[in-house]
UniProtKB/TrEMBL annotation:
SUPFAM superfamilies: Winged helix' DNA-binding domain
InterPro entries linked: HTH_MarR-typ (IPR000835), MarR/SlyA-like (IPR039422), WH-like_DNA-bd_sf (IPR036388), WH_DNA-bd_sf (IPR036390)
Any Pfam family: MarR_2
Origin superkingdom: Bacteria
Name this protein carries in UniProt: MarR family transcriptional regulator
HTH marR-type domain location: 1-128
Organism from which the protein derives: Nocardioides aromaticivorans
């Protein structure tokens, strides 16, 4: 599983870099990948990424300076801030999703529709017991 995940991550990173987003480091990309449409607090990002709050703050600072994210007031707590994807971050996200779809098509051609469906079903089922942050 690690080899497949590493392959996908590298392919997406190469596509992003090839499109001119050369200021986005792998660490920044991994942090940004955890951002949902509703945003996330830095403390939650740190917990999910399994890094310190300080490291998460540094990554968010870098992402913000590069225009990939913004910090906005948290509507549920006036004292807190949420990290949300900025328009430039949405551009990269669209590019990443496009590359992921291309990989999925390649894997489907290689495995065949039935085996690919079985792989996807198995991975979704495993997420239920391995991902405490699954929606």
């Amino acid at each position: 599983m690690f080899i497949g995940a590493r392959y996908v991550e590298q392919r997406v990173a190469d596509a992003v870099l090839g499109a001119g987003y050369d200021d986005l480091t792998p660490a920044m990309a991994r942090a940004a990948a955890r951002l949902g449409d509703d945003g996330i607090r830095v403390t939650e990002l740190a917990e999910q990424a399994r890094i310190t709050k300080q490291s998460a703050s540094v990554l968010v600072d870098q992402l913000e300076r590069c225009g990939y994210v913004e910090r906005v007031p948290d509507p549920s707590d006036a004292r807190a801030r949420l990290v949300v994807i900025a328009p430039r971050g949405r551009e990269v996200q669209r590019l990443a999703r496009k590359e992921e779809r291309a990989i999925e098509r390649e894997w489907r051609r290689h495995l065949g529709a039935e085996r690919m469906a079985a792989l996807q079903d198995a991975l979704v089922a495993l997420r239920e017991i391995t991902d405490p942050y699954a929606p």
